[in-house]
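With this grant's support, we have settled on a layout for protein records. An illustrative entry appears below exactly as we store it:
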Amino acid sequence: MPEPTTVPAAAPPPTTDTPSVTVVVINYKTAQLTIDCLESLEPDAQADPGLGVVVVDNASGDDSPKLIAQAIADRGWSRWAQVIDAGRNGGFSAGNNTGMAHRPAPFYLLSNSDTLLRPGTVPALRRALEQDPSLGLVGPQLTWPDGSPQVSSFRQHTPITELLQAAQTGPLTNLFIKHRVAGPVNDQPIAPHWVSFACVMLRHELLEQAGPMDEGFFMYYEDVDYARRARGAGFTVRYLPAVQAVHLRGGSSPVKSASATRKRRPAYYYAARNRYYRNHYGLLGSLAANALWYAGRCVSLIREVVQRRPRTTVAREAGDLWLGFTTAGQPRPTPTAGPFTVYPCPAHPRTPAADSPQPVGGAA
């Protein structure tokens, strides 16, 4: 990463008469990752005066928003980047809704703080949406830092998916292959059910017709949920492997590491899972998803006992499946419309002005 550049004075928040793209980056105690993400966006921001980045701090409770605001000032990014205070940690959907409401634009790029965008990523995704009005959202190929690909396009979750995930057996998976969520890495553009929201661009018309993201999801399943809603509103989803972004997977969620080590997942994961199935399959479908998981678990448990294999499910999953089940059918919460507060980008050297956010008008 390049060395910081000193600027003589604080610049105003990014403004333009004609916004082209708003990039939303969620920060929750990930200051350095967020700064690195902003640095990766600098070439596209310099090339497009209408591009603006809104870093939404989800009530981190640490110095990260001030550190990010200071980096924005020190490196001369104040024309196109700013940090706003969400006022609460409402999760991934709420943070993205906050950022999009704060700076309305024809297109929105939602990016994890642990994502690095290669130069040209933003305009490439934007062109795809401009050229095909039927597209609601598009996602790039995510890679590891060494360039090796990550699975970035997926099939939707169904109740039968729960059978396959719990059973962990090849014959069952092959029998119900269309219900397996993660497929092979594709090297050609396809129209999947959904793409990873670690980096995804969507058009404003999608928000108008399908509504904002469902803030009933704190984290996880909001991406497949919103893609289903987009397709239900008549839009298509597109995966573009020629466009690439690096996904470090070093953000603020412990779910992937817990799954890999078979440790207990946080309650919000299961609450999101139950909300997804209730939203798209109703009460009976949600019950069927849990019942099929238990059926699959019987299969994997027999294999573990007979073949003396280690446990294939995470700790306490059989009981945790019901976390959030009774509240899963609640209506979508109404997003906060603003105004929001913005952390000022202080002059260099640091000044006390960075210690607290100041109120500014926000977009409803």
Remarks:
- DSSP finds eleven helices and twelve strands in the chain.
